[in-house]
Amino acid sequence: MLSRFLVLLIIAVCPLFSSYAESLILKSGEKISAETITQNDEYVAVGIKGSHIAYRAFEVKSINGHEVKPKDDKQQAVINFVTAEEYLARGIAYYNIKYFDQTLSELKNAAKINSRLPEIFLYRGYVYSAGNNFNDAILDYTKAIEINPKSKEAYYMRGLAYASLGNFKQAIVDYDKAIAVDSSYVEAYLNRGLASVMMGDEDRAISDVKRVIQTNPKIAAAYNISGLAYAKKGNLEQAISDYSEAISLDSKYVSAYNNRANAYLAKNDFEKALADFSSIIEMNPKNADAYYNRAVAYNKKGDLDNAIADYASAIRLNPNYAFAYTNRGGIYFGKDNFDQAISDFTNVIKISPDDANAYYNRAVAYNKKGNLDEAVSDFTKALEINPKHHTAYINRGNIYADKGYYDKAIIDFTEAIQIDLNNAELYQNRGVVYSKQEKYDDAIGDYSNAIRINPNYASVYYNRAVTYGLKRDYDKAWEDINKAQALGQPINQKFLEELKKASSREK
Asked: Is 65 left (phi over 0), alpha (psi -120 to 50) or beta?
């Protein structure tokens, strides 16, 4: 729980003043009637229904018709005669009922009076954390720590904020400090364990949760985190055992069901995975992620119709669920339902207009459908967003080659090669285009690079043989044909007969 109870000292306000009056007029022209008005050389205090508001003397024109003459013209300020502790107490009360705007207002007033109360910044950090404003929360937790270096809550909450931002390394540093203050701080051990899993230090995570379990074997979260650690170590059986223990302690523990389902899925135990995802849906039929995850399980199982149905449910619950549209589009693509695939990928683009993969996926669907101009347009957009998307270069280059735009194809294949220098297929593709341009030496150079990368690339030997034949270098052509045949590459009989005739050889 974020809420903390404080013992507050309510300090009575001692009167500073000696004279009394019934009304005053401010220099702004405002007239104020009050039960009591008292003053000294610097302040004029107005008492109304038990509360006091003080004005700097220079703000006041007159009291009961008598001119007020301040000692000096100090900076204007209004002071509410309530203690910082009282403001803090009200702020905490508002926080506990989740009235966060009022919480911030009360804490601000408290800080004006006494900015050395660490709880002011601690609770303001709580509010920022609750609103996912983790950067500002970190600043306030840091301020609380500066005032009170022994505040385990501030270290712990700052660790949570860092973890929420994905900075697990720094989160662990703060959890360490919280534990240094209180070696029995269960929440800090649990979250340090979770952060350690995220950092790949599964052994430390297991050590932390074991310590918690030894202290209290009934904490379900400890077994859930232990399961995550064992799953990352590849010990799925132990992970499933831990998730099951967490569920036995808390039958509504959604995260444990989800994690156990993923472990079953990794073992290809589809029925148990589906059962766990279904349990989550039974607990909360409006959980879009549960439908999505069950769809993934159905998809992996090969039950595509049920997968489509669950992706549809996820989308119904969350119309901006881009992953659901993407995966459903992929299923439709595999079913050769290119129009529906294009529709789903288009929805992804509407949700995430800077998603290069969405444009790429739609381009591939357009290409399969035969809409080459639309495909080129989408591949181009994908490359504008991500200039390192080498498969977009490859596919656009293939379309350019098929359309006879050889120079553009060469440019695309070259860009792809610069991104992926050890891709033999790219050299082959560019070599084919060079051959079509009758740039045979360039083609042979690319085929040779492909063979260097993959010495058993049968079709490349065949293509290089054809190119050698076109250059009338028949000995090398035969050498490559024999190698291609040995690797199982089918040989065009017409080419083989022409080579025999041209070279006066049979093999």
From this structure: left
